Amino acid sequence: MPTFIAPDGTRLAYHHRGAGEPLVVLPGGPMRASAYLGDLGGLAAHRRLALLDLRGTGDSATPADPATYRCDRMVEDVEMWRAHMGLEHMDLLAHSAGAALAMLYAARHPQRIRRLVLITPNPSALGMRATPEDRLDAARSRADEPWFAEAFPAFRAWLAGEADFDDVFLPFFYGRWDDVARAHTDAELEQTNEDAGERYFGDGAFTPDATRTALATLAAPVLVLAGEVDGGPCPDLARRTAAAFPKAECTVQPAAAHYLWLDGPEWFRRRVLAFLDETVLDEPADAALPSAEQRPVPGRRG
User: Fold this and answer.
1) Cβ distance 36 to 191 under 8 Å?
2) Is residue 204 a part of any domain in this protein?
3) In principle, which of 120, 153, 227, 245 could form an S-S bond with 222, CB 3.0–4.6 Å?
């Protein structure tokens, strides 16, 4: 397991999976160890994934100053990591809350980005967030699911601040509530640093106007991927996120929620590789792969 030293002296760990050209990966959570990303739907068969355990998560050390868990304070961790790996510039992929960190990094170090992939991104760095109504609208689309009647009231209460997070509504974060999804949720508690997660979006982490100004000149192409039945971000919010970049495209993965590589690994892998390798799909991006009849029936957090 390789490690490097962050600017404040904290030892950070990362993990390699697969072989080929490197794809640098930032996890979400917020502050969830990178293990939950697995091989990203088989991407490791085509790219050498470098997955960072953010400070205080996974195999990375706990920092002396808890204030450094704030998203903007970790931008230089990413830059130090890039330099440690010897990459002049890099393909960067980030999931969910990790996308906020990726956007701040791209704004501060635009010359280091070759291509940027944002998977179901949290766009807090742009001054936008998924709303409770976004999430409830997406949840209502799952009304035919056998677990819906029990899950929806608990989900609505959580979003209203009237109840704590409840595992009963975890199915809303997956396109299919099957054994794969259940196993994926089982490890979350041990993988996530809850205290760090509460600090990640702390006051002062974001300056949206300055970030938007910087990203408006980003030369690198950007791919934003959303899930058709995800509420955070919903497809419309993902499209508005893409609009912040001059060279961005947004694609909605059919029947998918928040973890696209689990909900449709072949679709996800093909779309990401087409973007990274600048290949052309046989069909338009939104039409490529399963039809409504062929795709699986639609069944988390940042």
Assistant:
1) yes
2) yes
3) 245
Total domains present in the chain: 1
My answer on whether omega of the bond before 30 falls inside 30° of 0, hence cis, is yes
Domain around 74: 3-131+179-276
Confirm whether 291 is domain-assigned: no
| Residue owning tokens 């330099």 | 83
Tokens describing residue 24: 């640098």
Residue 282 lies in a domain: no
Is residue 100 within 8 Å of residue 125, measured between CB atoms? yes
Q: Is residue 252 part of a domain?
A: yes
d(CA 38, CA 51): 10
Q: For residue 270, how far is the Cα from the chain centroid?
A: 17
Residue 22 amino acid letter: P
**Distance (Å) of CA 45 to CA 18, 23, 42, 172, 247:** 6, 12, 6, 29, 27
CATH code of 16's domain: 3.40.50.1820
Q: 3-state DSSP call for residue 249?
A: strand
The pLDDT tens digits of the residues spanning 130-161 come to 999 999 999 999 999 999 999 999 999 999 99
The helices-and-strands tally (H runs, E runs) of the chain is 11, 8
SS3 100: helix
- Whole-model pTM over 0.70: yes
Q: Residue 189's pLDDT band (boundaries 50, 70, 90)?
A: confident
